[in-house]
Amino acid sequence: MWKKLTCVCLLTIFNICDAGYIAAVVEYSSLNEPTPNQTIERNVVNYVNTIESLKQHNVQIVVFPEYGLTDLVQDPENYSIIVPPLYTSDFSNASDALLRLSNAAREHGMYVVVNVLEQDHDNSTNNTLYYNTNVVFASNGTLVAKYRKINLFQEPKLTPGNELVTFTTDFGKFGLMTCMDILYYNPSQTLLDGTNVTDVIYPAAWNSYLPFYLSLEVQVGYVLANKVNLLAANINEPSNGTGGSGIYLNDGTVLRRVITDKAATSVIFGNVDTVINTSDFILSGFDLLSGGDITRERLANYKRLRDFDHQAYTFRSLDLSKENISEPLCHDCFCCNFNIVALQNETNSSEVYKLLAYSGQTIFDSKSVQIQLCGVVGCLTDDVSTCGEIPSSAYTTKFRQISINSTYMPRNPQAFFRPMSLKGDLLTIDNATYSEVVDEDSLDEVILNFTVTTTSDNVVLFGLYGRDDSSIVSISALFIGVLFLIQNIF
């Protein structure tokens, strides 16, 4: 039986104009049946039913998550299908899954984006290759786009893609990326470079890691930094730390977002405005937690994974007895300036907040990556190893303002920054603004600013995150083990 479905409609408080469209995102709780064919068949039935149900709301495009049809499988062979060439409209000789999804798109006049495991024959080696692939059916059922995930994550039997993919509709130009792609310059930034893409489609099976890689945190940071609409559909497996989906507007508005600790399928939809707002981003919006009040839920069953190399970071304790705090913090040559206003009558002296900064290498999925980060972080105790954890009871200290400034020199085109924020309910901090401005006095520097000026509490993290993908080096599991041993010895 299909798991619980939560369907939420956005109340019309935004002006619906000719430039907009109605989008739906499905956070799907995948079914896992005894055989691969049965698994795909049952999930396709649920997809088709969802598409049919969305027609009454005039939805024009719907996005399903990564691995939704197959569940999170390690061996693609028995779950993979052959994807016909682009612009195929007759799927009678294709897999039953593609045939039924194409028919549903045509019958209900809706663009449908689905993630599949694709098999393809390599004539040069006479081998079968497997890909993590997003396919897009137009409202007439024709296959108009196929994107193969470039940055695989713990998918050893798959082959990475190597092409950027966009497609054009009568309501906007869309780009495609999948899950871990969002953290890599290619395709998350190259997709937007001179392509006139206004909207990004983002299926994911994202495992959240405290405190820098929570699903909603990463999605919002991407929108704030890039001025695009984002349709983010995550698979729902909260017991594995997977889940968190949203529809975000290019001015930073959170149209809808969902995160839950229940194994349930949620459908969110609303009107997306495709007119670009070139002003600073302002993040505000609405929340959904399985149809309930998100502030009353503890998300106790949402697994909290962690990736926090605290031994390498520079920390400084925040003195909450001061109302106005203005301090710089550096790690090597990377510096951030903090301006913080704490509400004196609403600070909790038993709570610990620290400033942190770091510039250096980190190990990410068997790769050594250059990152820079700084921020204000909540800690369970004065021990820095507890920083960035979710407290058992919400932080009660209230900040009237948090502002972080930094600069970077974009000498390498593969370097980029994004803002990051996190609260104890796994949401982001609303009503924040982010900007990147070229320094008029030094044209080779970019000034970064991330600020919130409305009262914020339950703050776990507020900061900046940067990467330089030109320095990525693949390393062996043996080297990672040796490095881990050395770090723990010294």
Automatic annotation (TrEMBL):
Keyword match Ribosomal protein: no
InterPro entries: Biotinidase/VNN, C-N_Hydrolase, C-N_Hydrolase_sf, Vanin_C
Keywords associated with the record: Hydrolase, Signal
GO terms of molecular function: hydrolase activity
Signal peptide feature range: 1-19
Domain CN hydrolase: 21-274
Keyword Cell inner membrane: no
Cited PANTHER family: BIOTINIDASE, BIOTINIDASE-RELATED
Family membership noted in the UniProt record: Belongs to the carbon-nitrogen hydrolase superfamily. BTD/VNN family.
Name this protein carries in UniProt: Vanin-like protein 2
This protein's encoding gene: LOC115887485
